[in-house]
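Sanity check

After download, print the first record. It should look like this:
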Amino acid sequence: RRFPIAWFSSKEVRTAYEEETSEPISLSTISTYLARMTKRGKLLKRGTHHALEYRVMSQPTQNALSLVEDR
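Expected structure tokens:
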């Protein structure tokens, strides 16, 4: 909901999660979820190890990538 088209960091996700749930969560847990979502084709990733940013992949982009991967 909070990051529909913009690039975001794992720290921004952690802040949003903690504001929504009033529960603490470790940055490593957030990073694990983001890595899994990237691997499953739900997020795009850019940057270096210490400055990664993510973005939600649009459905048309997901569809196009799945066509390329099927070849």
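If your output differs, re-run the checksum step. Summary of this record's structure: The helical segments are 10-21, 27-39, 59-70.
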